[in-house]
Amino acid sequence: MSASAGARRWRAQLEEAVLPAVVALLIAALVGDVLIIVYGQSPGEVYRALLEGTWGNAYGLGQVLYKTTTLTFTGLSVAIGLRAGLFNIGAESQLAAGGFAAGVLGTLLPPGLPALLVLPLFIVAAAIGGGAVGGAAGVLKSKWGAHEVITTIMLNFIVLALLNYLTVAHFKVFDTLHTADVRSGALPRLSALIPPFHGSAANMVLFLALAVVAVAWWYLFRSRAGYELRAVGLQPGAAEYGGVNVPGVWWRAMLISGAVAGIGGLNFVLGYKHYYEDGFSTGAGFLGIAVALVGRNNPVGVVLAALLFGTLSQGGLAVNALVPKQMVDVLQAVVIIAVVTSVPEVRRVLRSARRRGGPEA
Questions:
Q1: Res 2 pLDDT > 60
Q2: Which residues contact 322 (CB under 8 A, 6 or more apart)?
Q3: pLDDT digits (tens, 9 = 90+) for 132-167
Q4: Domain with CATH 1.10.3470 in the chain
Q5: Burial 108-139 (b: 16+ CB within 10 A, else e)
Q6: Helix axes of 115-144 and 148-166: crossing angle, nearest 10 degrees
Q7: Which residue of 35, 146, 159, 320 could cross-link 93, Cys pair, CB 3.0 to 4.6 Å?
């Protein structure tokens, strides 16, 4: 392949990755303008308040980064499942199970141990907690053909109810719905490095999230196991004909998917509150589905989509004085619908334009 041909191929890939997202955001902004005007407000004022309440000050940006961290884990969890052709709806309970396992471990460790020394233990505990839930759905899929959508939805109810019982019956502190504080392993907030972030929940788990994203990218696109996972997601029959153990890939994908979501529980348990609290995962697992879809199931895209939804989530609080917070929730839904509908159409237009333009286009 010549240098010019390689450059054209990279340009084409960049166009197909970026332009559909830009079109989707423009559509969402247009719909948002209409909703804001109907409510009797100025779109410029609302968007200005949204930006000032998020990226316009250190506290708001810190809150965006905190929410982005959790959504990166849940979005990546869903994306890994989708790459294998599996729709993991259970990131909500997997996130909670990982946080619970880490919270309980934190109450059992001796006090005063260095955070970096025990962090691997917390990562393993959270991964086991979330992986056990995801792996259970994977076993039901690979052994008996149970559809993962049904099993993960049902496991959400079962696991969240079980965690509520265990917290209330065995681990709660006085009349609260949370465990005791972790005795070792609490991670500092970003304000320790960047003082203007003082008061925000952003913490060092953000860097762990970026590390997990890098590992996931390598696993999906540079390892044999990742190649098999993607092959099963594209065409399980052909993958099986080529010697891939399809049921084994399904189980492994759900196990990894659940483990990634479980590690996300550390953002709350180690980085923010320093204990497990019943209900902390509410909404983050399901919003992870949107993050994965908007991020096109690519780890890097997931980070960018998580940043977008983290901004909108925090922005809803910032604009609440002008418009109802639910309007931002509507915008999130519009972004998802716009991405799903515009991506195929924009790519079709781009490819059609290249064909008309000939080999030099």
A1: no
A2: 41, 45, 46, 49
A3: 999 999 999 999 999 999 999 999 999 999 999 999
A4: 63-322
A5: eeeeeeeeeebbebbbbbbbbbbbbbbbbbbb
A6: 140
A7: 159
> Looking at domain 63-322, which CATH architecture does it have?
Orthogonal Bundle (1.10)
* HEC sequence for 113-130: CCHHHHHHHHHHHHHHHH
Share of the chain above pLDDT 90, in %: 68
Q: What is the pLDDT of residues 303-315, one digit of tens each?
A: 999 999 999 999 9
Q: How many helices (H) and strands (E) does the chain have?
A: 14, 0
The answer, yes or no, to whether residue 25 has pLDDT greater than 90, is no
- The tokens for 201 are 């929940």
Measure the CA–CA gap between 294 and 21, rounded to whole angstroms.
8
Please count the other Cβ atoms lying within 10 Å of the Cβ belonging to residue 197: 21
Measured at the alpha carbon of residue 203, what is the angle toward residues 202 and 208, in degrees to the nearest 5?
120
Higher-confidence residue: 6 or 318? 318
Task: Please give the pLDDT value at position 354.
Answer: 65
